Amino acid sequence: MTSTAIFDLDGATALVTGAGRGIGRAIAVGLAGAGASVVLHGRNAEALAGVAREIEESGHRASLWIADLAEPERIPAAAAELPEIEILVNNAGIIHRAPTATHAYAAWRDVLSANLDSVFQLTRVVGAGMVERGHGKVVNIASLLSFQGGLNVPGYAASKHAIAGLTRALANEWSASGVQVNAIAPGYIATDNTRALRDDLQRESEIRRRIPAERWGRPEDLVGAAVFLASPASNYVAGHVLVVDGGWMAR
Predict the structure, then answer these.
(1) Are 174 and 228 in contact (CB under 8 A)?
(2) To which H or E segment does residue 170 belong?
(3) H or E stretch covering 185
C-alpha cells in the first residue's frame, strides 16, 4: 500500500454528528475530500444542506440525517434509517457554563445526556454492524478537559473524561474484531462553544499566551487527525486519545 493509499477513504461511508458547523463541519468536509461518502447529522436542515452542497460541488457525495440526539433512548430507532456506516465520528455535544454551586442539576443532566449517553447509544448501534462485518472506525471527540478540570464547566469536564474512558473500553472489546475506536482531544478551538471565552478579553489573552503555537486553533486543524484515525493508516491504533492543541498539554 502506497503512502497516499493508506489515507484513502474511497468507498467508505462516514457518519459525522453535529456536522452543520464548527469542528463537525470541518471533519465532514475533510473526510469527503479523502474519498468518503458522508452522512451529515444535525437538527438544522438548512445548515446541513449548505455543507452538503459544499461537499457535492467538490465532486463527493453527501446525505443528511436529521435527528435529535438529546433523547438517547430514541437513538436506536432513529438510527435504523442509516445506511451501512464504516466510519463514525461522534462530534455533537453541548456545554453549560456555571459555577458548580449554582450549576443546575437539569443542566448537568442535559450535558451528560448529549455528550455521553447519546455517544454510547449511537456507537453501540452503529458499532454492532462494524463488529459483525469485521471492520470499522469510531472517532470520538474528546477534549483537553478529558485530562483537566476546567473552570465552571463540571458537566462538560465529567462528560469528556467519560468519553476518554468509553473510547478505551470499546477499544478493548472491539479491536480483535477489526474495529478501531479512538478519540481526538481538541485544544482551544475557535468555535461557538468557546465564544464566551474569546469574548472575555482577559481570559482570551491568558489562554492564548499559554498555547505554544500562540494562536487559537481552527476547526480545519483537526481534519488531518480525523482522516488518520478514519483511514487504514491507523489500523493498529486503538484506545488512543490524540491531542491536537497547539502544544497546550506540553507546557
Answers:
(1) no
(2) helix 154-174
(3) strand 179-186
Q: What is the pLDDT of residues 202-229, one digit of tens each?
A: 999 999 999 999 999 999 999 999 999 9
- Kindly state the greatest CA–CA separation across the chain: 55
249: its cell numbers: 498539554
Task: Give me the phi and psi of 96, to 5 degrees please.
Answer: -130, 125
Could you give the C-alpha distances from 202 to 98, 199, 209, 248, in angstroms and in order?
Answer: 18, 9, 11, 18
Strand order in the sheet with 13-16: 62-66, 37-42, 13-16, 87-90, 136-141, 179-186, 241-244
Residues 6+ apart with CB under 8 A from 101: none
pLDDT at residue 80 greater than cutoff 70? yes
pTM of the model: 0.96
**Which pairing describes strands 179-186 and 241-244: parallel, antiparallel, or unpaired?**
parallel
**Count of H-run helices and E-run strands, the chain:** 9, 7
Q: What is the pLDDT of residue 193?
A: 85
Q: Is there a contact between 98 and 57 (Cβ–Cβ < 8 Å)?
A: no
| H/E element, 120 | helix 118-133
Looking at the DSSP assignment, which residues form a beta bridge with residue 90?
A: 140
Average pLDDT value for residue range 94-119: 97
Closest to 246 in 3D by CA, of 190, 163, 176: 190
Domains within the chain, CATH numbers bracketed: 5-244 (3.40.50.720)
> Is position 236 annotated as part of the catalytic site?
no
One-letter identity of residue 9: L
Contact residues for 117 (Cβ-Cβ < 8 A; gap 6+):
72
Half-sphere exposure of 59 (CA within 13 A, CB side): 4
C-alpha cell recorded at residue 103: 450549576
